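Checked the freezer inventory, then went back to the computational side. Two predictions to log before the end of the day. The first one is the construct we discussed on Monday; recording sequence and tokens without edits.
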Amino acid sequence: QLVDSGGGAVQPGGSLRLSCTASGFPFSVVAMSWVRQAPGKGLEWVSHINADGTNTFYSDSVKGRFTISRDNAQHTIFLQMNNLKSDDTAIYYCHALDSWGQGTQVTVSA
């Protein structure tokens, strides 16, 4: 099970930190990802982190603004989002194996 949290409404240029807490599988050996869906659009992969947190990957649209991290002791991953833009407005989901979080809404608007 994956539980997403941390979304909200911010102005352009603002920041948010998303969290995803996992249970029911061996978290520390599983890679994790964040995926988002903007209004009226399909799923877009955002970021990925390997099992021990030593390798991270980002889509071009968020590279340099978002940072993915994980705390294996807390079975949690994070997505620090800085310099948010209106195009970042979406529902954000964490994903691992065949599990998805319930999603957390991020709205960036003046």
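The second is the one RB wanted added to the comparison set:
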Amino acid sequence: QVQLVESGGGWVQPGGSLRLSCTASEFTRSRPFIVWVRQAPGKGLKWVSRIDTRTETESYTDEVKGRFRTSLDHAKATVYLQMNNLIPDDTAMYYCVNSWDGSGSRGQGTQVTVSS
């Protein structure tokens, strides 16, 4: 099973930026998708973005389109989530998951807090 470790969260003011990292033990062709999901306080898990590690095809939920960008570095087996123009509603614990839809086991996550 691929192991994933998230990092890069923190506190930022509205309009600011953060870059999250998801470092994998490996990328596998049998399970090529890395998904970012988030969970706001008191709310359920929501899918944010997906990247296909074979083709680097990206997908985003409408809430973050135009503001977030996911990318990957094969040499480092790392997927990034660049988050720009952050708003308070982006406040959540962010997780990366090695699956198509974000289901399955998650790591410890990284907290993102957007407030003034």
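For RB: The beta strands are 4-7, 10-12, 18-24, 33-39, 45-52, 58-60, 68-73, 78-83, 92-97, 110-114. Residues 68 and 83 are 4 Å apart (CA to CA). Let me know if you want it refolded.
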